[in-house]
Write a structure and sequence with these properties.
The complex is a heterotrimer of chains A (352), B (581) and C (203). Chain B has 581 residues and is α/β, with parallel strands linked by helices. Chain B is built from 17 helices and 16 strands. In chain C, helix 3 crosses helix 4. The chains are: A mainly alpha (352), B alpha/beta (581), C mainly alpha (203). At the A-B interface, helix 1 of A face strand 15, helix 9, helix 11, helix 12 and helix 13 of B.
Amino acid sequence: MSFLRASSPHAHSALTTARVMQWVLLATLPGLAALTVFFGIGSLINIALACIFALLFEAAVLKLRKRNALIYLRDCSALVTAVLLGLALPPYCPWWVVMLGVFFAIVVAKHLFGGLGYNPFNPAMVGYVALLISFPVEMTQWAAPSTLSNASASFPPIVESLTHVFSHDTLDGYTAATPLEVLKLREGLTLDTLYTNEAIFNQARWAGVGWEWVNIGFLIGGIFLLYKRVFTWHAPVAMLATLTLCSFLFYDAGGSQSAGSPLFHLLSGGTMLGAFFILTDPVSSAVSNKGRLIFGGLAGVIIFVIRVWGIYPDAIAFAVLLMNFAAPFIDYYTVPRTYGHNRAHRVTKIKE
Amino acid sequence: MRKIWDIHGGVHPPENKIQSNQKPIGVMPLPDWVSLPLNQHVGAPARPLVKVGDHVKTAQLIADAEGFVSAPVHASLSGKVVAIENRPIPHASGMQAPCIVIESDGEDTWTELQPCENYMDLQAEILLEKVRSAGIAGLGGAGFPTAVKLQPDANKKIDTLILNGTECEPYITADDVLMREQANDIIAGAQLMAKLLDNPRILIGVEDNKPEAIKALTDAAQNTAIEIISFPTKYPSGGEKQLIQILTGKEVKSGTLPSEIGIVLQNVGTAVAAFQAIKDGIPLIERVTTVVGRSLQIQRNVHVRLGTPIQHLLSQHGFDENNCARIIIGGPMMGYTVDSISVPVIKTTNCVLVPSEDEMPTPPPTQPCIRCGHCADACPANLLPQQLYWYSQAQDFEKLQAHHLMDCIECGACSYVCPSAIPLVQYYRASKGAIRQQQIDKQKSDRARLRFEAHKERVEKAEAEKEAKRAARKKAAEEARKKIDLTKSQPAEKSDTAKLDPVAAAMAKAANTKADPADEKAKIERNLESARNRLARFNHQLNDARNENDEARAGKLEPKIKQTELKISELENKLAQMAKT
Amino acid sequence: MLAFFEQYPIISALIALTSLSLVFGAVLGFASVKFKVEGNPLVDQVDEILPQTQCGQCGYPGCRPYAQAIVNDGDQINKCPPGGQTTINALADLLDVEAPSLDEEHGEESDVKTVAFIREEDCIGCTKCIQACPVDAILGAAKHMHTVIASECTGCDLCVEPCPVDCIDMLPVEKGLKDWSWELPQPANIIATDKKPHSENAA
């Protein structure tokens, strides 16, 4: 009888790609819950639409590429991209915005580059940026947190939400500026004045109604993923640390030129989502731990720079994409020191 | 020295040791025949000393070491040598190699041994020679000839001897039970080796999942300076470089041996074998092997004579062929598969693992790498396996070497943790082979270039000499002609001059004769004739090749035919031109 | 002097630019003399990559003339069958051009390396093959037995044609245990039609 010939190792741990992706999905739940509590079902609709479109597009592209769609869909990577995009998009945005975003993310940014594992840029962020630049109006209409609006019409009821999403109405009466926008457009007020004047701040505990809890939710999810060792701490911690440091340096004691307090920056906008879910996308980030520190750190700096001196109120997507460009270069210079060698070598130096 | 260090990375696969470490080492009946490969160690194969038909006794020397890095082979049974030929050997390739096959006579008659009671009084050189001639090689799985390892360069001072009792691979328990049962022999072996190395300090490293072994060793080492150090269980702590790092904190420089930093590492089994070789005079003919896997009815450790076919070993333990997923020599992390059960047990066979189908199911299909980095976290050599994988697929040898592919110890930790089930180690092995082959090819092509340059020089020199001779002859002919012209004016001495210089005259005649057009034409016609003959011969060969469907040969002939046809048309052109003028 | 510069700005600009160009010209001239490299190193680099079989299948009498042709005359880089696609890729890398596939007119790439072998019972000792061998890998003399030194033979088969009795065979080199290594595994993302049956999937 002839026996199987195979290379060692012959044992394998139980971890699979699908399991890793499922944990990531699980970890988005706290943040998603906070979004739903404060902003209504808009995000849920977004995510549902995004997931459906993602699976459809992924299956179609896989068929075109003559791959076995059933096997490749099972690794849940399309779902993760869809969920992250759905979380990043404003709640109650029209359905075609979601569809185009998913198209850009799945088909253009992921499969045109080779599919899972071959994309140099974070697919969700490519989709987000494509939408932001193409449809600035739809992408900057953020719903107001429920506690701000009057109690009876806290957020659009279900039917109205769905109608809005699937028709062409604008969402007047329910929109409000995000905390970051408010900070950006405050025109020289000091932080204290701003905090007492604006409702979005004076009803909040740290950094803006609703948004602070959303960020805390994603922070909890991120800690769960760290515990499960889905990724290492280097990139998220580096990003948050540099963001804190930068905002600390430019805090200016809350004066009129202040760029916002560290706590504010940490708990507003997409900071935690970006730190733990976007930046840690393994395919497009740096490869070694040292490299991830640099990757996360520079991303934090770029986020701060764009937030304060750029025209966009939030900058996670741009920062991540810019760092994706730099990731291969970072990889060349941050190869760890191999056992038996005196110091780490740059990989650009090809051996003679 | 209690302080221990940690290695980078590492994994914790399920240990699966309990199946085989609950029983003492067993013995089993001798096989009917043994097949002893001439190469069971690192280095040159041994040279056979017997021939087919000879009768040999157990422990008789049947093949001697060939060169410095080699080891001799001894008969593990008494009987008749029935073959010295290529037989299946335990190797991942499934290829065969020369073996001495002995058919047992059932008696197990031993040859005369030379035990030595007070071996510690002997000189180091004599002890070393005994170890060498006993054929001792590293029993931990690497098979490096022990006598060579115990004889480092004269300018290297060895300050630490480490005995490796780690046995970090799952399923294997051979060293564990050996340490429990023969702890005294291990200690004696360690002291013996230390004597050969000029008495360095001795450390024995054991993982903490072997408490009985640690106790046995500690008891045996009570009145000695030998330290037994236990450390947390992790795979691959038992690798040579890793164990050195754990016990001493030092790293072996890439591409060098541990003796460079003053350390020699030996397996505990090797220590026992060396001790027995010297004290009892028994050469290496037997070893402890773990026989384990759920396709067996009995799983245990057993003393096995070298050369025993696996078939005999497995049948003694109730092997169910149909339930067996694969046959692995070694453990599940670094063992290699063999596809036939007639391969023999050799010096480096520490385990025969025959898992059942549900114990070791077929691995899931490979998926794309998501660059999660779990492999880099697990790598004990601190490499970047995901980058090595990428460049290995691209066959970018320069980048692979820049990422230190050659420092990979092929432990399999990276493949173990990969969520996409990528067979990483196979990529690295293939690439290492390709890089080595490329280096060999480069050496060969450099030599070919040198030889070609030398050939060119030689040909040019020969041409130059011919030219010089031709010029000298022409010059001499010119002078002779001048002389003849002069003598023409003196007719009386004509015949004398002619007689004096017949050669010169002939040469002058030859020099004067210009190339006769008729001769030229004849020459071209001759060349044309031979070229046409050549063409006919080639076409004939092409037809043969086509009839036999030999595409390769046909492909080779076609350019030649073309060349010949070109030559023919060139010659015909010349002829036509000559006809015109 | 500063006053001068202030008063006559145009002349000062002229003076400044002229002196800068003189300085830089001097530096460049000095560098072109001091760091001059004899010959064309590119030819050597191309020659390093070629496999040195000296077979002439590319149409040139040896590897170095082909290297010179590639560099000086811009000849195609895909004419070398013994080098195969690996050599073409390496040359394309070096010269920063596209890597075409092997030009079939010059022969086919074969996986198996061959060496020449003279059937001694047929050899007549004419030395024609000795003269043909570009690396002098055939040992022999007129009217004496000829034999191929297998370790030096590059497999170029230039000796086969001149032999008048056709006694030279090109035999494949056998790969032994020492040359064996694992093959690259099957790639992960294969098209469904390329997929091998399941039993081979794990190998």
